[in-house]
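Structure request: Large ribosomal subunit protein bL21, Dyella marensis.
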Amino acid sequence: MSYAVIKTGGKQYRVQQGDVLRVELLNADEGASVKFDQVLLVGSGETITVGAPTVAGATVSATVRKHGRADKVRIIKFRRRKHHKKQQGHRQHFTEVEITGINA
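Returned structure:
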């Protein structure tokens, strides 16, 4: 089974065909296919190809399943004995993609 390490949204992901993962929000419609061209590593069995910094000509194709927002993260800043308390919430946007192919 072949795998690849891709970079998108400032993060790196190890993917295989059929994987479903959540990445930073992409500008694509649901059901559309997207290509990730920043492939840092491609492995198949015992052979591994490492890019410098990316593997030339390698792409990973995926299909957008849905867009959404993650669970709320609560941010609380508290200073004891100072009558200071600040609360804030944050929900990060994401795109859920399914890997359909790895072209090395």
